[in-house]
Amino acid sequence: MDTIGFIGTGHLGYPIAENLIRAGYKLKVYNRTASKAEPLKALGAEIVSSPEAAATKGGIVMSLVSDDAAVEAVNTDALLSALGNGGVHVSMSTIGPEAARKLAEKSKAHGVTYIAAPVFARPEAAAAKVGNAVIAGEKGAKERITPLLQAGFAKNVFDLGEDPGSANVLKLIGNFMIAASIELMSEAFTLAEKNNLDTRVVYEMLTTTLFASPIFRNYGGMILDRQFAGNPSFSAALGLKDIDLVLQTGKATLTPLPMADLVKSRLLTVLAQGVKDADWLALATGAMHDAGLKP
User: How many CA atoms lie within 13 A of 216 on its CB side?
Assistant: First the structure.
């Protein structure tokens, strides 16, 4: 199998890299904090000291980092030169659509194809390979990298066409809908609790009938269990970053998004309260506080 460059072994990147190694791929791994990637060495990965050192001529580099600036810091001239003609950069990060388009143009100038392939999965879902990928970019490169996505985390892969920005728009829409669903559930469960209903029964009834989906089932259970902080899989700060990108995308296309404004306010409140290890699920505490309940 090909040697794959892999950049970014945070909460989500690590299980994807581990799955790829277990699937038989040889990985050259770079992470800004090298110690976070070190355990992969015991599985057979080569730990390298720079993004460009993860690349091979005409090969594939997969990256999963925190934001637009981090992807731009990875997608350097040095990395693109190391990949060279025929190389592919698979960006699995959640970034803005315009950033993705600019990165694609920069890559093209070096003979490298940029594929946007943002990840729909929390770490546990990625580890179990039941996540979802949305991909956009050049057709041949998408065909080349799809087996990697399937081996790494994706049960399903959805093709958005040639424009790399489109995959990131869909990723932002998905994260917006999750955040809005968290707000919806927190308000509904708060109403149930204030009316002395057994919220566990409410949760079971709703998430096995009218709202039988993984988002309502998984996040709903976490809301009831008050799993708002402690080694977050997806931090409130990253959630705020994504909702800001949603609002920026809405502004660019004159699309009002009042629910996104509310969710942003909830996340800002969480961060203002100084809970350093808050998961973005903590936005659910807003409705509870408003109603006089203790989260």
Answer: 16
Instruction: Please calculate the CA angle 232-233-237 and round it to the nearest 5 degrees.
Output: 65
Q: How confident is the model at residue 233 (pLDDT cuts 50, 70, 90)?
A: confident
- DSSP designation for 136: B
User: CATH 1.10.1040.10: which residues of the chain?
Assistant: 168-290
Catalytic residues: 171
Say how far apart CA 268 and CA 283 lie, in whole Å. 9
Distance in angstroms (rounded) separating the CA atoms of residues 45 and 48 = 9
Q: Which CATH fold would you assign to the domain 168-290?
A: N-(1-d-carboxylethyl)-l-norvaline Dehydrogenase; domain 2 (1.10.1040)
Alpha carbon distance 169, 257 (integer Å):
14
User: What pLDDT score was predicted for residue 127?
Assistant: 97
Q: Which residue has the tokens 């581990």?
A: 18
The side-by-side arrangement of strands in the sheet containing 3-7 is: 46-47, 26-30, 3-7, 60-63, 88-91, 113-116
Superfamily of domain 3-162: NAD(P)-binding Rossmann-like Domain (3.40.50.720)
Domain with CATH 3.40.50.720 in the chain: 3-162
